[in-house]
Amino acid sequence: MPVWEQCFRNEVLMQSNSGFTIYRAMLLAFLLIAGIATAQDKDKENSKDACSQSKPASLCNASNTCGSPSTPCDINVKRTSYSSSATPNIPNAKANDLICVKTGTTVKWHSTAKDTGFLIDLGGSSPFDPPGTITGGTEKSVSVVAKTPGCFKYNFSASDSRAIYGMSKAGQSELIVVGEQ
Fold first, then answer.
1. Strand arrangement of the beta sheet that strand 73-79 belongs to
2. CB atoms within 10 A of CB 93
3. Calpha distance 20→1 (Å, rounded)
4. Are 151 and 74 a contacting pair, CB within 8 Å?
5. How far is residue 56's CA from residue 34's CA, in Å, rounded to a whole number?
6. Relative to the CA of 24, which of 17, 41, 132, 151 has its CA 20 to 30 Å away?
7. What is the pTM of this model?
8. Taking a C-beta distance cutoff of 8 angstroms, is the pair 117, 99 a contact?
9. What count of Cα atoms within 13 Å lies in the side-chain half-sphere of residue 177?
10. Lowest-confidence range among 19-23, 34-38, 45-49, 177-181?
11. Residue 128, Ramachandran bin (φ over 0: left; ψ between -120 and 50: alpha; else beta)
12. Which of 2-11, 42-51, 86-95 has the least mean pLDDT?
């Protein structure tokens, strides 16, 4: 077999092998993206949708219930690298997860981060007394009492007066106020 024919066959084999490798890489990328999308859909199902449930109070349990009418619920609001977070004083609590409180519970919003201010906005309806936007910070905690049972979505943002871009992206979460049962 002439040398040129042998070189041509080797080139064809190399191209078909690299084509197969590209196909496998594309298939792997597709499967990886599909897996990530499915995981994100499951995360969305498990969080941030409490208020769309028919009985949101049924989602409340010991792992997400904060405080009691005799013990305040402390929620630490802070600025993260790219966003804001609100974390209740519940063991193993994660930032921005669903929080449940019982009516009559004092909710204390504060920030343990240095030079941080925050805003909590519950929109048109607030379960708290006094109602309205909650504004506080490192040196100014704000206590409100949960009065109105129901499920409430809230937005919050934190700012760091020392940062170049002090305000961070707003976070969102949900709060369920459980009435007497």
1. 84-88, 73-79, 106-110, 142-146, 128-129
2. 17
3. 27
4. no
5. 30
6. 41
7. 0.70
8. no
9. 21
10. 34-38
11. beta
12. 2-11
Q: Which residue has the higher pLDDT, 88 or 41?
A: 88
* Alpha-carbon gap, residue 124 to 135, rounded angstroms: 16
Higher pLDDT, 42 or 84: 84
Tokens for 77, please give them. 């609001």
Vertex 97: Cα angle to 93 and 101 (nearest 5): 80
pLDDT at res. 110: 96
- State both tokens at 101: 């409180």
Q: What is the rounded CA–CA span in Å between residue 150 and residue 29?
A: 43
- Given a cut of 90, whether residue 8 has pLDDT beyond it is no
Q: Which of 76, 75, 56, 59 is nearest to 67 (CA)?
A: 75
Q: Which fold has domain 52-178?
A: Immunoglobulin-like (2.60.40)
The secondary structure element, H or E, covering residue 88 is: strand 84-88
Q: How far apart are CA 104 and CA 147, in angstroms?
A: 6
- Contact between 132 and 154 (Cβ < 8 Å): no
